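Hey, can you fold this one?
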Amino acid sequence: MEYYNYLKSLHLIFVITWFAGLFYIVRLFVYQIEAADKPSPEKEILQKQYKIMTYRLWYIITWPSAILASFFAFWMLFFTPIGNAWLKMPWMHVKLGFVFVLYLYHYKCQKIFTELQNNQVKYTTNFMRLWNEVATIILFAVVFLVVLKNAVNWIYGVIGIVLFSVLIMLGFKFYKRIRERKQ
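Sure. Predicted structure:
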């Protein structure tokens, strides 16, 4: 039982670094897309630097964190009595569903990463800013599920963060309009 707390601690550490990597990689995508519109030689200098930064973040922090977070989660769920009990609870099924969605999000980020490494810009900076909110919503849902251990009450927390995200986006659009009028 004592080693369970070590497993949980390691799992949480790697979940935190995984999310940190996902949040920051999308921010770097925004910067890469903005750099594509810069004049030479600024464009080439920035693109080269952002490619290095995203590569290091993606393969040294984000991917290893995802793998290790999943490894320790798997160990806790299938090789400890507490984990075996949790696998029978509805809230854990919902949480694992969100983890699956998180891996789909991670996979999509991998595709965007690969495109940008090959100088293919297919998305706008506004799309990337919205895309970053998906990870935030997943994070809120998972945290509320784990803390409340309830398959239904997590919905209120997610509704709250969605409404908060809408307010942030409305503020972003309002600020963008003000900025455009001053130009």
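Residues 2-182 form one domain. Let me know if you want another pass with a different chain boundary.
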